[in-house]
Structure prediction request, 549 residues.
Amino acid sequence: DDAADWNLAAPAEFAKALLANRLRLAATAASPSSRVGHVTPSCLGGAAGSAISVLGNTKFACGVSASVVELSAAGTAAAAAGCHPLLAAGVVLNADLPPVCSRAFRPGPPSDLAQALTVQMSDALAQSGCLDAAQLTVGPRHRLQLHVDAVCLSADGSLPDACLLAVSAALANLCLPRLVVPADAGHDDSNSGPSVRSTAAADVGVRRCPSGEQFRPAVLRPGSAVICTSFVAIDNDQLLSVPDGREEALPGAAIVRVFTAGGGDLAVRVVSVQMVGEAASELVGRCCREAVERHAACLAGPLAR
Amino acid sequence: NPDSLMTDILLNGRRVDGRRPNEHRLLRAQLGTQPQADGSALLEHGNSRLLATVHGPAQARAADLSPEEDCVLRVLYNKPPFASMTERRRRGRGDRKQDETALLIEEALGGVVLKQLYRRSQIEIRVLQSDGSELSAAINAVSLALMDAGVAMRGHLAAVTVGYCDQAPLVDLNSYEQSAGLPSLTVACVGQRVLHASVGARLHSQQLDPLLACASRACACVANQLGQDVKAHLLAACCFQSAA
Prediction:
């Protein structure tokens, strides 16, 4: 690969040429809203909700599976106090970067990057205000617990961008069998077991509706999404949006990731900003404005239903 | 009750999904889906979709080298948690089955890759699977990815899982039939040579020969079908090169 050889021999010149080329391309494309990627919803038959997102060379597959858990009143309060708010709402998020997506990842326990990605996305979803936990209740004592697994198929920069696109789309097209709770399914609270027990649906008496009807819980408020836009700031001056792997690794670059949430009835707002490296505040402000524009473009484009 | 089980699986000569006993599911392959890997393939096998990538040959780590300085093939097999709706979600790692599958694929490949051409090097094959579970689909995907990477092989390694129901062999079991506990055999072969055979449930010794014969024929068909996809990919690549 000629580019790789050039990079090895003269990294500084290669970086300058890459930047010049990219800025030329960016000038013609005119805005980060044009790099929104592509989402294929409901593509995996085995999952309750699924989506595959493609952003340049970065691809993520997200699947959602659901199980029924039983709550006890005392345990709920304790659990809500101690654990992550997303977990308290009933959504367990996990991002996986398996060895297939890139040469850099070895098999074994989740790498630091995978864990950081999981935490970033969980925080963004929890603080977004788009999550409607009430949709997950089933009867007075039971609740649906959603396991959202995002698996990277190909990693080439802007990982949270592609990952959140897939997660938003997968949560938007959840399709579950309707459940029926028998009226006398009561347990005494003095039971000293763990507060939230995960059991098969048959054990707790919650059954599928015999008609096989399905329902779509709107876990994300209709029309809304949580999206991340990454930027790379070079020398406090130039800004590249939605960078790929080579651009994220440019020397002297600061990476700014803006998480935005909203859409539908909710106004689009910036939920959090994460930075690696230094960048001037005007630049961060510009990133936020462009991220909000891109959010609207994503809602209109790949996430439109 | 075994009789009712058999009628569940095979009713009026048709299986659960409407196939006849000797029909394979839809097979479609795309090569070169991940440009940053040396070789990659996306295989659609009925409802399953498998992605296999090949990295290498590259320099082997000292710990992996065997004394004969032969080529080291490592297969990493990973199945995401949402892949099949019927299995319960695994807590923690639960990787034993995946490690075993990876080992079986490595052994099958050992007989087909020309290892002496790649001394002291390592070819890493990574398989990610979604929506279904079959060892044979994984082997098919891996051999396609190796072809895309240009790794020298003796021939096209194709695999198929056959089962036995009511004195008739069934070609290409789907997950319903596999979980029903039919006697099954997964066979991988190159041409006439059988490189890998593993038995799924209990198999009577008298059923083995007809099943092996059926499986070999089915492997030849699978190799033929996938070979057409490979040829189409190569032709498209050649046209692109000559036009550019």
In short: The radius of gyration of chain B is 19 Å. Strands of chain B lie at 27-31, 39-45, 48-59, 72-78, 121-130, 157-165, 168-171, 184-190, 193-199. Residues 205-243 of chain B form the longest helix (39 residues).
